[in-house]
């Protein structure tokens, strides 16, 4: 087992100034033991110094898997580029990586996850960087923030606008990785890797190839070792010739607060009756109305928040398998999970590597996307990626920008106001006390989705709230459906300070949305 080393020995091979790419998605696939060893080595020896880390999806969470926080130390981390960052509730301490970003201690960037995977592919093939339209007119665009999360990031741009073929593109120059750290389940004596206990493949293969093609070091953390020749070739996801070092961590978690669930890895299939319907409440009513946009046979993408409840609406109505779900971590089909296990699915049909899933998303091959919003402005722009007062309450953009760039139809779900006293009864939704502030604003804090670009491309965009369904139209935000019990003039127009208007032909949503049990709704046939 010549490739097997201790975590400390692996960390000792990382040189000062290295560019380190890490495969992870929060705790899912996180090589946490290796990251811990790097942090420990720096505290003991002062090395490695001034490394850059690249995370297509976040490394670590706020619930026991530190991930990025192991290396968020002054002098160790010089720059961070990530699709997302650890996030959690406001009652938990701010992660160390967020403190470094907020304090402007290092240049920090939030780059869409799919673009980061594209960057690995293109640097591996020695092409001249990524040329893409993903992110135009959003915070990714240099005409806005150019992905920068703080002043030091803005002072050192990593993306530029470029004219090519008579069109405007975003160009991300190559960043060649010196080290790749990935995670799998099993390694044989030659370093061949299998993922049988993982909930996703993520992008480890692409990251390893990019590193190997530039003469770098590839470190794999695994749960167990086996003899060479005992792994079936078809199950090997990363071949051993790409792997330099293997580190054992028999206690690595499958995902956040989950040591191992065989249904997440596809080892067993859960009975469909074992999934609990979403609890009754306003958010379920919103998810029900969003689900009504679906038709049987569609393929839909799913995001975090209220939108994650949509599959459970179909479950309760007896149509759990009528739609194929595709999530950015790579699961296709089955039942996407919520809460700590978000990003995983039970009973999946297949697991696709994240880079391939993002190619599918960026090209708009799916029928519809269900996403959430923090705030919406009069142009139809959506912010999900930045909250200035408590930034770690959001993970950043993740795959949101990739998914929405060319999606045919997008259904955003969220609350119309923050902190309103809302009553849900059989006759409708009543606003008992106005909220602290409306989510319908003049200008969003961060443009994660561009309403102007969506209109130019002919994308269909809806915003579903507890008060109404809003359509993005040339004249702005127009409420086309009203929730039973809502006073349009008071609860929508006045509450939004006139930023949302009421369509002349606006109709009342079905009262069945308010029912505690199944409504009898069926998705119908895909046209």
Structure characterization notes:
With 527 residues, this protein is an alpha/beta fold. The protein has 13 helices and 34 strands. Strands 1-15-12-9-2-3-4-5 form an 8-stranded parallel beta sheet, with helices on both faces. An 8-stranded mixed beta sheet has the order 17-16-22-25-31-32-33-34. β19 (335-336) and β20 form a beta hairpin. It is an enzyme of class 2 (transferase).
Q: What is the overall shape?
A: globular
Beta content:
25-35%
CATH topology of the largest domain: Glutaconate Coenzyme A-transferase
CATH class of the largest domain: Alpha Beta
Multimer state: single chain
Radius of gyration: 23 Å
Gap from first CA to last CA:
57 Å
Strands of the biggest beta sheet: in what spatial order? 1-15-12-9-2-3-4-5
Number of domains: 2
| Helical/strand content category | alpha/beta
The helix count comes to 13
Number of strands: 34
């Amino acid at each position: 087992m010549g490739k097997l080393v201790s975590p400390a020995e692996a960390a000792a091979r990382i040189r000062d100034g290295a560019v380190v790419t890490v495969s992870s998605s929060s705790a899912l696939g996180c090589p946490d033991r290796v990251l811990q060893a790097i942090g420990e080595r720096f505290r003991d020896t002062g090395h490695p110094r001034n490394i850059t880390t690249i995370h297509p999806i976040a490394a670590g969470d706020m619930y026991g898997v530190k991930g990025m926080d192991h290396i968020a130390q002054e002098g160790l981390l010089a720059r961070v580029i990530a699709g997302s960052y650890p996030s959690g509730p406001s009652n938990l301490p701010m992660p160390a990586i967020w403190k470094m970003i907020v304090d402007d201690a290092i240049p920090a960037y939030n780059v869409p996850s799919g673009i980061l995977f594209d960057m690995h592919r293109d640097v591996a093939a020695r092409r001249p960087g990524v040329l893409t339209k993903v992110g135009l007119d959003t915070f990714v665009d240099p005409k806005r923030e150019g992905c920068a999360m703080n002043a030091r990031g803005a002072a050192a741009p990593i993306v530029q606008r470029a004219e090519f073929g008579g069109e405007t593109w975003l160009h991300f120059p190559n960043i060649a990785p010196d080290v790749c750290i990935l995670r799998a389940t099993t390694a044989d004596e030659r370093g061949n890797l299998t993922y049988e206990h993982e909930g996703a493949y993520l992008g480890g293969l692409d990251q390893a190839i990019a590193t190997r093609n530039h003469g770098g070091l590839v470190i794999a953390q695994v749960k167990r070792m086996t003899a060479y020749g005992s792994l079936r070739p078809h199950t090997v996801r990363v071949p051993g010739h790409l792997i330099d070092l293997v580190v054992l961590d028999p206690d690595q978690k499958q995902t956040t607060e989950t040591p191992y669930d065989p249904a997440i890895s596809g080892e067993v299939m859960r009975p469909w009756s074992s999934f609990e319907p979403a609890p009754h409440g306003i958010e379920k009513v919103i998810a029900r109305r969003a689900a009504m946009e679906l038709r049987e046979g569609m393929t839909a993408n799913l995001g975090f928040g209220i939108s994650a409840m949509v599959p459970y609406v179909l479950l309760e109505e007896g149509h759990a398998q009528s739609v194929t779900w595709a999530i950015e971590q790579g699961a296709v089909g089955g039942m996407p999970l919520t809460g700590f296990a978000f990003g995983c699915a039970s009973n999946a049909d297949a697991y696709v590597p994240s880079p391939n899933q993002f190619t599918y998303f960026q090209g708009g091959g799916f029928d519809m996307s269900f996403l959430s919003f923090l705030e919406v402005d009069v142009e139809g722009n959506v912010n999900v990626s930045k909250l200035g007062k408590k930034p770690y309450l959001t993970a950043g953009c993740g795959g949101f920008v990739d998914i929405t760039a060319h999606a045919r139809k997008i259904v955003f779900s969220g609350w119309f106001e923050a902190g309103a006293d809302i009553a849900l009864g059989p006759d409708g939704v009543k606003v008992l006390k106005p909220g602290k502030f409306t989510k319908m604003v003049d200008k969003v804090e961060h443009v994660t989705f561009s309403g102007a670009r969506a209109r130019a491309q002919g994308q269909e965009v809806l915003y579903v709230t507890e008060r109404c369904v809003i359509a993005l139209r040339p004249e702005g935000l127009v409420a086309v459906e009203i929730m039973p019990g809502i006073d349009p003039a008071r609860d929508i127009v006045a509450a939004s300070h006139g930023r949302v208007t009421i369509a002349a032909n606006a109709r009342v949503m079905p009262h069945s949305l308010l029912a505690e049990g199944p409504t009898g709704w069926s998705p119908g046939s895909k046209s």
